[in-house]
Amino acid sequence: MGIFSRRDKDGYDKDGYDKDGYDKDGYDKEGYDKSAPGYDRDGYNRRCFNVDEIHKVTGTKFDEDGYDKRGYDKDGYNKKGINKKGFNKKLGDYILGYGYDEDGYRDGVDRQGYDKNGFDRDGIHKVTGTMFDEHGKVREFYQFGFDKGAKLCSKCGTMFPRMWEKCSKCGKSSMHSIGD
Fold first, then answer.
1. How many Å apart are CA 18 and CA 16, to the nearest integer?
2. How many CB atoms within 10 Å of residue 42?
3. Which of 32, 34, 63, 66 suits a disulfide with 26, CB 3.0-4.6 Å?
4. What's this model's pTM, rounded to 2 decimal places?
């Protein structure tokens, strides 16, 4: 250390804090622990929640205002009335979209244009990039509620319940079960 240094030989300033703002015991001026960032000497964060997400005052998962460690109430909404998915209950819509329901769908598709099973309007799956999902099923399998015995025409790809033996679209009788 030079003549003009404002720190002692151990690197602490006149108030007893190092260059990072921690004292010799590892706590900052507000009492937060260096080894457990964001938690004070008693194990609580600035919003009074511990690592188990229990509030210091209420002894529950919710603070005095009814919000959890992440700022959501028992119904999953923050103080602005917005849930984790971005749905605004006051407006009855998503923040960035118009006419989407609470699950994020409008007219059966999400903001990216995929249905709940991951297919777009053309029947292409968002993960595989084909007309089949990761389980080998096509969009119609989910849309029309076919069971595991549903049949897929090997010629034209049309699906039929297992009781049908012949494709009514192309007439081909060679069909196989989904997943075969």
1. 7
2. 10
3. 34
4. 0.43
